[in-house]
Every structure is written in structure tokens, then in C-alpha cells.
Amino acid sequence: METTEQLTASGFEDGLSATASFVWGPWLLIPLLFATGFVLTIRLRGVQFRKLFPALRLGLIDRSDEGGKGDISQYQALTTALAATVGVGNIVGVATAISIGGPGALFWMWITGLLGMASKYSEAFLGVRFRVTDGKGNMSGGPQRYLERGIKGPVGKFLAWFFAIAAVVASFGIGNMTQANAVSENLEKSFNVDPTVTGIVMFILIGAVLLGGIKAIGQVTAAFVPLMIAIYIIGGLAVLAINAEGIPEAITLIFTDAFTGTSAVGGFVGSGIMLALQLGAARGIFSNESGMGSAAIAAAAAKTTHPVRQGLVSMTQTFIDTIIVVTFTGLVIISSGVWSEGEDRAGTMTADAFTAALPGDWGGHIVTIAIVFFAFSTVLGWSYYGERCAQRIFGDYATVPYRMLFTCVVVVGATMELNVAWTFSDLANGLMALPNLVGLLLLSGLIARETKAYLDFDPKLTASATEVEKFLIDQKSPWR
């Protein structure tokens, strides 16, 4: 017979799960995310399609904006944001969406990503546009700043504080404990590493990086992120090469099932169009974080000569995360046929696909290493997000205590069962997105107006710092 404490805990979990399901359900966050992405795409005249290649060049080839003011390079800001978003969601999250919603869920993840690029551009633009210099001389920006500075009056202030509180909570959940837990579980399963050992090692490594602040995080992620993505994609290419015969059928399933639903097969119970759309959208947003506002915090630290330039660089993060990494995971799962094993196998589905294609234990080891890399980098990125928001709430002196507490919580995450933490983290993520999306819609006119003015002046993104400065003077821009 259950005790009163067990019944209370069970009731709390059920209530938390129901609240998270409502926030991320088809009546609140998902339509708001789609609507915001669509409105911004229209108002910005499809900037994510028109300027994708110049933006990729600026972020990945040029890498820095000579003469720009900030704490880290544009490339480091991009990799810091990528570090926080390319995580467990790119492996397990994709498998979950497909195992429940069918292959068509991947199509809706693509749509979410393409529309989300406009949202990611907009929040990064605002992050730089309304950033401030804190008491320690570092750049500070993001929704916790631009919602209050861009939207005057009590509404803007309420939205900014709501976001900041939710972001601090989320940083300890989805940005810390759940990631550390994923690392320890996979290392224990694949290499028999004790979770306590994993926790201690992560404590030392995370703490060492955080001592250096955003500059150290930027330097580590600049070297770390491209390597981890390359390893995963190379492994994915090998699996796809072996499963080449199944790729045409996989692509057909993705497009047809997105609009017709998926019949029951194997362990898969079948799904309708709405379920594929809901799961694809929810997991797509969970993976790339477009509309959540988190990436704007990293963008605000970038050395850039104009907010539009950093907005475009940050926009490529969603393209890399969803259109590249998520696509590789989805195609591997669908072309190998493991997607039909059902929801119960979602946690190991990607590893099963890799293991079935590659010799020996190589497949499972590649996925394990990818999860470790992705989760570790997510912890680094989210540590900065949480720190900036804690600073906004408690002041400049909150940064060191926050770093110390954040580092200690890594050990807790690595050594404990965290079922409730995942649900709580989902809810906190959703509560971050709500004020940010409202803010993006309210500020969409300013975003569109200033974006058009700059791109009319510098359509190829090749203007020098001197030329941009003259443009800002001629425009009488408040951002200088």
C-alpha cells in the first residue's frame, strides 16, 4: 500500500507532467512558436533563405568582425550557442519524435527549423541591439535585457524578469543535471565507468572552464564543437552508406507520412498527422531552441559592428543543428528500419541503428561518445546562460556563487535518478519561451525596419567597420 509521501510525490509528478504537456501542447507553445516564426519570416522577407550563404561565410569562414566591440568573436558566440543546443535532443529527442509520430515527424522538425531560423535571427539581433556593459566591463544581453529595454513600461519589465527566473531554473535542469546524467548513464553502460567517477571528472573539467568565464567557454567550444559534430556526422555517413538502398524509401516515408499519418508496423502503434506535427515541432524546438531566447545571451557577447551581422551568424546555428545534425540522425533511424521498434526503444534507437550497420561495438561506442560530447558542451553553454540571468536578478556579485553552485550540481546530476528533473526542465524551457515569443512579436516592427535598412546598405555583408560606423552615424542609430 502506498504511503502518504508516495501518493503526494506521485500527485506532484502527475501535476508537473500535465502542466508541461499543456505548455508544450497544441494549444499554447507550439502554435505560438509556429506563428512567431511565420510572422518574422514574412516581415523579414525570408531573410533565412536570402542571406543563408553570406551568413555561413561570415560565421564559419570569416569568423570575426574586425573592429567590432564585444567579449568573444562571432564564431565563438556561434559555437557557444551550438554547444548549448547540439545535445542529447539531437540523438534521443529525434528518436523519440519518430518512434511516436512516425517518419513524418522529421518533416515537421525541418519546418520548425526553417521558420525557427527567423526567430533565432531576431532574438540574436535584439540581444546585440539592446546589450549593456555590466559592472565588470563585460557585455550582457538577451531576453532578460531586451524585453525590458525594448518594451517600455511594466509589461517589458515583467516579461524580462519572468524569462530570467525561468532561465536560471532551466540552467540547473536541462542545462546541467539531465545532461550530466546522460553522460554518466552512457559511460556506465558502454565502458562500465562508475557514475561517481564521471561526476567528479565533470566537476573538475566544468569548474576549470567556468573559472575563465565567457572567454574561456568561447575558446573551448570553438575547438570542441566542430570536432564533436564532425565525429557524429562521419559515423552517420558511414551508416547511411551501408544503408544506401533504404534512403529513397526513407525520404518517401518522411514526406508522405507527414501528410497522411503512419500505419502500425512492428512495435510502432501508428500515428496521425497531428501527432507527427506535434512531436516533430516539440522535439525540433527542443533541439534547436529557436524562440527560447537562450542563444541571444551568447550572441550579445560577440564582437560585431552591427546587430544584423551577428543575428545572421546566430541564425546559422539552427540550420546546422536541425537541417544537418537532426537530419543525419533521422535518416539513420528511418533508413535502417529501427524506427518501427516502438516508443519503448527510443532511448537506444540511434545506437541500435549505428550498431546494426557498423562492425563490432563501433556503432554503440560512436553514439555514446557523441552523447558524452554533446551533453558536456550543453552544460558549458547553459552555464553562461544561467549566469547572465542570475546576474540580472541578483546583481554582478552573483556570478561567482552561481558558477560554484552550478559546478557542484553536476555531481548530483551524474549520480542520481532524474525522471522528475526532465519533466521540470521541459516546463522551465517552455516558460522561458513564452515571454520571449511575445517580445519578438511586439518588437517585430523594429527588427524588420532596422534589418532592411542595414541589408540595403550592405547586402553582401562585406562592409568594413569604418563603413558601418558611417552608416550608423547617417542613420542616427541609437546602437553605437
From TrEMBL:
Q: Which GO terms describe its molecular function?
A: amino acid:sodium symporter activity
Sorted alphabetically, the keyword list is: Cell membrane, Membrane, Symport, Transmembrane, Transmembrane helix, Transport
Q: Does the keyword DNA repair apply?
A: no
Question: Has UniProt tagged this entry with the keyword Cell membrane?
Answer: yes
Member of which family?
Belongs to the alanine or glycine:cation symporter (AGCS) (TC 2.A.25) family.
Q: Which organism is it from?
A: Corynebacterium kalidii
Please list every transmembrane segment annotated in the UniProt record, as residue ranges: 22-42, 158-177, 197-217, 224-244, 250-277, 319-339, 362-385, 405-424, 430-448
Q: What is this protein called?
A: Sodium:alanine symporter family protein
Q: Which topology term describes how it sits in the membrane?
A: Multi-pass membrane protein
One Gene Ontology cellular component term attached to this UniProt record is: plasma membrane
Q: Which InterPro entries match?
A: Na/Ala_symport
User: What subcellular compartments does it reside in?
Assistant: Cell membrane
